[in-house]
Specification:
Helices cover 18% and strands 34% of the residues. By secondary structure, it is an alpha+beta fold. It folds into five domains: 196 residues, no CATH class; 291 residues, Rossmann fold (3-Layer(aba) Sandwich), CATH 3.40.50; 69 residues; 85 residues, Sandwich (Immunoglobulin-like); 88 residues, Immunoglobulin-like, CATH 2.60.40.10. The longest helix has 18 residues.
Length: 765
Amino acid sequence: MKHSIKKGISLVLALSLCVSLGMESALALTPQPSSAGAAAQNTSAEQAPIETVSDAADITAMVQNYWEDSFFEEVVINPNRETVTKDGTETTLEQALDLSHAEAEAVLESPNAAADYFSNSVYDSQTTEDGQVVIKAPFQTMRIILYADTLSDTYGAVEALHSPDYDEYILQYDSQEAAQTAYDKLAEEHGQDHCFVDQLITQDDLLMDTGTSGAASCYSWGATLMGLDQLKAQAGNAVGDSSVTVAVLDTGFDAEHTFFEQHTISPDSYNFMDNSTDISDVTGHGTHVAGIIADCTPANISFLLLRVFSLQNVDGTEQARSTTLVVNTALQYAVEQRADVINMSFGWNNSNASSYTFLDETITAAYQAGIPICCAAGNESDDVKTSYPACNKNTIAVSSVNEDGSFDTVYSNYGSGIDFAAPGVDIVSAKSGGGVCTKTGTSMATPHLTAAISYIKLRAPSSTVADVYEVLQRYAIDAGTPGRDKLYGWGYVDLSTYFRDNPGGSHDLSAMTATLSHSSYTCDGTAKRPAVTVWENGAAVPEHNYTVSYQNNRQVGTATVTITGVGNYRGSITKSFSIKLGAAAISSAANGITGITVTWRRVPGASGYCIYRQTGASSSWKKVKTMDKGSSVNWTDTKVSNGATYRYLVRPYCGKTLGPYKGSKTVYRLTRTSLSSAKNSASRKLSLAWKRNNRASGYQLQYATNSRFRSPKTVTVKSGKMVTQTLSRLKKGKQYYVRVRCYKTVSGGRSYSAWSIRKVVKIKR
């Protein structure tokens, strides 16, 4: 199974920069069907050693070394077979995929012919109900990102990097076929939720509506609507010398613009696309976005400017490009640099975006570090669930409103995932190269909310993301239906009275009591955060008067909660709660080649697993294996006998603590048989013979025209004594792959052996 995306993914850069991305972007355009021989060659090639890196520059350098200039999002063969479109432009199949005329003619014969042609290639192809054939290419960067505790085999990677801070492996291959082969193996071993294909982000369109107007105190009218102009004027007396760092990931920046004169630009600002310190703006979008934040905030706000796009020549046109690896690395860097808030005015727009997870590890790390991430909801007038990472529960999704506070119905995304709204229509801000210009979109709304959060961080630097969210919610103007709604979220934020409402004072938190909503949890790999209530003289203290931080709250053991006073509340309270191991559940136990393979679901927090076995009618359990890695999810029992029955259970452990188990699995051991002969015995017929297994109730045959047995045909032989079978009505000239396995009927069900080694026979008559 390949990790694929069915539709283009777009980068939301306001209306100004609408970007689309497909897994099928940059690639060598000639499809080369994979063969068993090619796959074997890729996996057996000498692989590069794994290099441990700690510098983001070492990671982003890989992008420069393996960059493809030619790409497409999708090629569609239309039902009439007469027209072909490449990214919406009509062309010929020869030109679209760099095929010969003869190859193109063969593909265009029928939808089935096209599907057959691409079935064993690195391309994904899908035939729609109306007969369209949609062709995509998931492995255009030939790069895989893997999250794993350890990695024993890179399956032929020509470059391999390991970032231990995130248990992240970055693997580069020299062909799409090699990348596909490696991905299939790595996803099977580590799970698809830990294995990702690095994808391209590409620019579709660039729009700029220039303007010259601006307010005296702040250029953006949004500063007035949200009360940010008042906070800017009050900041000198209200927050003194406290400071906040805002990280902005975007297309680059004009750091010399007058909008940034009163602000500090971090010397650690970096260009992650080109692996350099050149952060100059390639489209003007990043300057406008960062300019909004600078315009709405005092000099206490400094900037960590991270460029994640570069211009690339695509079919003679300069377009902004990036990859998921670049964005993820820059996001990790922002967390490591201890940014106080992060602005991402872009996202991947696709109907399947809610299933994306490739930034989740880093987003979670930011959340745990107390760093809010503000994300543009998107400009497609669609549900925000189609925009990632805005749809991630640990980011703050921002929709757009007009100057009168009404929802921007022309462009803004909406939906239950919207957190807050902010000004995003006709926003005046810095123009790259000097002066100002106006832009519209959720890209402009997002930095307004980022600016608001910077004030909250100035007042309460130790605030968690939940603390910040609570303050925003408390100051939100409920512009839509009561409560959270699909247009405004909780509403647009007006912080004009924030400094007045949060003065200094003297309340000793350490003299108060605190209670937790939960005293224990079962470890599931996520951070546990029981709700906290602080009591002063029998009354609950409003939550905005303190922050809550959690330590050791993800793994098995004792977690700590630290409650720290904010503003006129000082001191702290410490509480604790326990996190226990969950139960291990066996997902499958089945006959393999060398024995019985037991597979279980990984138990978060486990440092290893103990495997127990019952043999035959025995009621006693015997520990047969201890797996000393918590990442282990399978084990093969080789000390088993043909015709014997075995029962298994698995228990996790952490240190000296043994966790519970959930259920068990019983397997009847059957050794696999082998095909002794397979030949084209008569017209369109294939005669098979195999070795008998005297413990089998019968046999199952499979045959297909592809080596991976996609859409195979199956024949069941309901006798353990019958060891021959003839397959009829085959296609002359076709090559068939065949295999056989035994089965035993046990308690009304079937227990299967492993498949035999396949044989290949060409039907010549």
